[in-house]
Amino acid sequence: EVSTDDPETAFCTLANREELNPEEDSIHHCLYQFTRNETLSETNKLLCDVCTQRHCGPKNNIKSEKKYVYTNAKKQMLISLAPPILTLHLKRFQHAGFNLQKVNRHIKFPEVIDLAPFCTAKCKNVAEGNTKVLYSLYGVVEHSGTMRSGHYTAYVKMRAMNNHLSDLVLRGQSQASETEPVKGQWFHISDTHVQPVSVSKVLSSQAYLLFYERLM
């Protein structure tokens, strides 16, 4: 969604990201890079309708003359609506010549993550004055093997019902909740084998998919 109603806040975020110094190979660094401010110039210039009309006159003359005007611009992708369930899909492949190669390095991810530095200043379902949008981890999918073959396993937290999340899903209401991780027991699931594991085991996995539920 492109917001043009307030250019002054177009590149502002819900929480200050200037102080962020995300660690390499972390999910925070991935989010920071994905939502960074980009400059569109040279071959990436933006087609400007206003500039084109100013240069060519009324719209009905533009197509016939084909004198489109491109201009330098700034681009930033931010979250405008915080979801009840946050799903993060890590790109675990890279191009090696004409082939695809799997990326096996560990990406650090937390039990509780704050999306506020990656949300627009006017995030639609965040109460005015709130500068935190917190999520608690409840599921991880891991892949072992290569690009051609492998095996998927999962880590899932068994926990009590989250009434706040139910209200958010069913009624779209957002109220302050606990800022700590939702309590529960983690399990590792591989085909028909299920066994309890520690949270440290979960956080050391090579995550492919991450599932978070909203706290506040």
Question: What's the gist of this structure?
Answer:
InterPro entries: Papain-like_cys_pep_sf, Peptidase_C19, Peptidase_C19_UCH, USP, USP_CS. With 216 residues, this protein is an alpha+beta fold. The chain has a domain of 130 residues: Cysteine proteinases (Cathepsin B, Chain A, Alpha-Beta Complex), CATH 3.90.70.
The count of DSSP E runs of length 2 or more, i.e. the number of strands, is: 13
What name does CATH use for the topology of the domain at 80-174 and 181-215? Cathepsin B, Chain A
User: Radius of gyration, rounded?
Assistant: 22 Å
Name the CATH class of the domain at 80-174 and 181-215.
Alpha Beta
Q: What percentage of amino acids are in beta strands?
A: 25-35%
CATH superfamily annotation of the domain at 80-174 and 181-215 = Cysteine proteinases
SSE-based structural type: alpha+beta
**Elements, N to C (H/E):** HEEHHEEEEEEEEHEEHE
Distance between the termini: 23 Å
In DSSP terms (H or I, runs of 4 or more residues), the helix count works out at: 5
Outline type: globular
Architecture of the domain at 80-174 and 181-215, according to CATH? Alpha-Beta Complex
Largest sheet: 7 strands, antiparallel
Low-confidence stretches: none
Q: Mean pLDDT, as a whole number?
A: 84
Helical amount among residues, as a percent range?
A: 10-25%
Protein name: UBP16 hydrolase
Domain USP: 1-215
Keywords: Hydrolase
GO biological process, one term: protein deubiquitination
